[in-house]
Every structure is written in structure tokens, then in C-alpha cells.
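User: Modeling request: complex.
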Amino acid sequence: MEPFKKIKSIVTPLDKVNVDTDQIVPKQFLKLIQRTGFGQYLFYDWRYEQGGIPKTDFILNDPEYKNSKILLARDNFGCGSSREHAVWALDDFGFKAIISTSFADIFYNNCFKNGILPIRVSDEILQKLFSTKSEIEVDLEDQTIMVNNTPVSFDIEPHWKKILLEGLDDIAMTLQHASQITKYERSHKI
Amino acid sequence: MSKTLFEKIWDSHIVVNEDGRSLLYVDRHLIHEVTSPQAFEGLRLNARKVRRPDLTFATMDHNVPTSDRTLPILDQTSSVQIKALERNCKEFGITLFDIHSPNQGIVHVIGPELGITLPGTTIVCGDSHTSTHGAFGSLAFGIGTSDVEHVLATQCIMMEKPKTFEIKIQGKRKNPHAVTAKDIILSIIRKIGTAGGTGTVIEYRGDTISELTMEQRMTICNMSIEAGARAGLIAPDEKTYQYLKGRKYTPNNYDELVNDWRDNLKTDSGAKFDKSFTLSAENIAPQVSWGTNPAMTDDVTGSVPFPDEYGKGNPEEVKGATKALQYMDLKPGTPIIDIVIDRVFIGSCTNARLEDLIEASKVVKGKKVASKVRAMVVPGSQLVKKNAEEMGLDKIFKDAGFEWRESGCSMCLGMNPDILAAGERCASTSNRNFEGRQGSGGRTHLVSPVMAAAAAINGHFVDVRELDLN
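Assistant: Request completed. Predicted assembly structure:
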């Protein structure tokens, strides 16, 4: 996994609460057996008319946000289905960080597993970010978001910070405990 | 020290604690065709093996056709995914209940019916409705594909300990055939919201829960994820032990295990929960969702709300409700019973077990599906289907004009050919009314099996408390 350090970009404001993973990537695109190539299906039903014509009023179709790497979302983002395809689609489309007031648990976890940084901020900060047009900078090491030259700090679980900063393989990390796993298996009844 | 049931199961599965997280041992890993191919590919790329193929069970449920299984699968991409699961299970030595197996079915229906699900164990599956297994006092988490790969390789999952959430449901339902487990869980979600359980494991408690059958308890735990929870739990009791006795994979030393579970698998008196919520079951009415998330639900006697009234001053919620009504093509103030439907789906891991079909059949017996409605029953598993057919339920449904299908997830998520056309409105016993969930542009109303059956006969929603269901 690519290590995550800093990113600087304008933010794409997706102004909707309770965005579920069925919206992020609809089910007809879950049949692929690889992890790549899901970006084209991101928010498919919101992004395209029947027949594949882009909807001009959807934010991801606005050329202004073409190179944005940061998605701004609202409460309970990523709720519903556990499909990791949702994170693969966001990643493949180019988003490397998502900022919201809250995330659904499985989605939050899936982000880190793919090197994407989900950041939880207060309502007040989120409102401020929704009203900014300029670039912001996210610095994971310092746990800050720089908005109009003002730093805003954010919390992150220390283990996720370490995994993202170093781009670690969590399976390899767990396999270092192989002897403890074997020991547990020997003493465990079921 | 007094502990909750969750804490007891959690603590007994810790392999090692590290950096504020715990490496938990996974007792049973369930696999299906949609969220596993990339995990197996990851294993191959890193030359890793499946650590415990003997604790891993697979089936194909999400995209399998529910029509004649002797015919080839027409959808090539579905076929590729199904073949990939067959190949992966063969290569890694995993037990697979394939499309022709008498044990095939929705993964959360077959786990309990085969005795794979056991009290006090940890279960994971790459599917959010894994919470269903919590009905047996099993700590069961839905996980993403990267975690599926992690569990395949290590038989463990690394997790931060969730908080505990007690939901107490008390009192007698006035008409338990009309006010079902589905109505209880929809009432809860309606009150605590779709993020009300985020970061927690819910334990459902109280006399109402004790009275429920195992299948009804599964309906409750199944929708824990719709309240945002990591898992839902119900302490096992004699009903639980009876249900699992003598099933295909129930362990040989079952009686010994039950003795141990009787002593240990309950929340100690004096144990503290991080959060608590109480609901009285006495006045719950049959529920019907009107919007695009499961909290957007009302009593069958109610009306489609005005967004301002629903949002209670929260501008984001008001906006959400406005968009939901637009999508659902509903006008505020419309009585729920005036909503006319085009389709009925009785199925899914929430409501496609034998009892669900028995209850729905009582409404349908001797009647006909309304002329403009297309209705289908998709049993949760081949075993449910077989048992239902032995009771003659298939005949009751078919005589009334329902389609009687093969088992699978079907129109709950529409990955197979069972989908709504744009604009079609469906009374569905499934768990999610998200935009496009049952088909792009389709409109879903979540209801119980008896409510869905009554809607099929009448062509619109009706209050099933007015019917004789005994």
C-alpha cells in the first residue's frame, strides 16, 4: 500500500446525509472479480442519465472539481452494505481523503485498508469546509487540515495513523503473531 | 467483575492486544461469491494459504438466478463470479454449498440451519447482514473484502473494541401475528436512527425478546446494521439450544457445550452498558417505510410526512426527506394505506425463513393477487423451500398467483435478473429501501411478510391487524 503523507487539493462538496454504499457503487457493478477499474461506476445513478449521459447538475460532473482528491461528505457517510467496492471506486476515481462528521463503521475500516484517509470533524468545521472554494492541505503526520492558512486539527486512532503513514500490510503484521494464534487454537474448544 | 454478554465473548476470543486494538480469533468464516474473489486473488499474489479451511464455509447467494437451476446462467458476469468461487474453494480446500446443493441458500439463513452458527462463538462474513447470527448469542461481524483476506490468511480479525448498547423491549404485543419482529426492529430504527448504533454492539433484551422464536430473533438482529451497529446480540436460552440440536454441523459434544453456555452466556446483573434505549412493544403498529433509508418509516395507520415535520428542525434531515419523497414519488399527507403497489417481494435474509412463509401464506390462502400486481416468494434456502413445499405452502402461493422461486438474495439487492423496473413500487420484506437498491429507479417499501402478502392481495397497503391471522 502507498504510504499517505500529505495531500493538497480543492474539496468536492457532496451535500447529502446518510449516503449509503449502494449509491457510491450500485450493485450491477459488483460482479467484477478484480479490485481495479471501479472509478467509472462511482455514484453511477447520480452521475448518469439512463443511457450513460452525464447529469450536468451532479457535482462530480462539474469540471471545476476534476482534479479534486478530497471528498467532503455529511453525516453517516458509507452506511449500509459492507461492499469494499465503494472504497475501490472512490480511490480509483482519485479521492484520497474523505471528510465528514461521521462514517459508518465498516466503510471507515475499509478506507484505511485501501490507503484512504477518512477524517471526522465537528459540525462547525464541516460547515466551514463546505463554504471554502480554495485548496486545503491535509497533513496526516501533524493531524491537521490547513484551511485558508488556518490549521484545524483532527483525531485519528494511532494504529490507523501508523498503518497509513508507513503503508503497512496488516496481514503481514498479524502473521507476526502466528505462534500466539497457534497457542490460542490449541486451548480453544470450538 | 460484572460483564455484558458481548464483553464475555470478546474477552474469550482475544489472541493478543496491540496498539489499542485486539486480535480476535474467528470461529467461523462464511464466504459468498461477491465479496471474496479479490480476497482469494490477494492470497495468491502473496503466496498465502487459508489458515483454517475447516472453519470456512462458502455458498453462492447474491447473484444466483432464482429461476430453473437446470438451465445455464445467462448473465456472463454473474457466471464468471460463481465459477471463480467454485475454483477458489477447490484450490483452497473450502466446503462449498454450490448452486445445485440441497444446502444452498442465503448465507445468513444456512449458517443457523446447518448448525454452523453457535452460541458464544465469533463469526465473520463479507456481508453487513452477518449481524443475523447474533440471534444465537454469537458475536457476528460484517467485514470488507480486505478483512475477508485477512481472516482467510490468519483466522483472526484486528478490531477496536466496540461500545455496548442495550436495547430493552418490554411488554406484550396485542396481536403478535400482525405486529411482527420486523415491526419491532423497524420501530427501533425509526426511533434511534440509521446511525443510532454506530460504533456499538447492541444487545436486545427484555420479555418481548425472550418470547420471540429463533427465526423472529434473527429478523431483529439482521437489521442491527440498519441502525449502524457493528453487531446485534441476543443471549441464548433453551429455544436457542433446542433449535441447534442435531443439525448437520452441530458439534458432537453439543450437550456438554450447552451446559457451559447455560452457565456463562448471559449479561451479569450489575454489568453496565455504554448506552441504553427502552421500547414498549404494547403499542407497536405494523410498519411501512416511505423513504429511502430504513429510519424513514411510519405506522400503517399514519401518513407520508411533511419533510419539515420529519426533520424536526435539522436542515440536513429536511433536505434528505424532501429528496426521498421526490425519489419515491409520494406526496406529504398521503395515508400509507392509499399507496398503490406494482410488485411484492417476499424474501431476503431478513424475512425468508419457514415461519415468515407460513405467516404470509395465511393471508394469501384462498385469495388472488391483485390484477396489476406481480408478486414473488423467494425462500431463503433450499431447505426452507423443501420444508415449505412439504407443508403445501408453494401451492397456496402459486394458486394465488405468486411466483415460487429458487433460493437466493434475489430482489433484496437485484444482482440477479430479479429487479424492479424504473418507477415500479414494491412492498418488500427485505432490509434496505435505498435508492435503486432493488433496481435503478425502483421504489421500495419495507414491510413484514404478512404486510407484504396483504399488499399483494389488495394492491395497496392494509392494516393487517384487521385480518384474522390466528
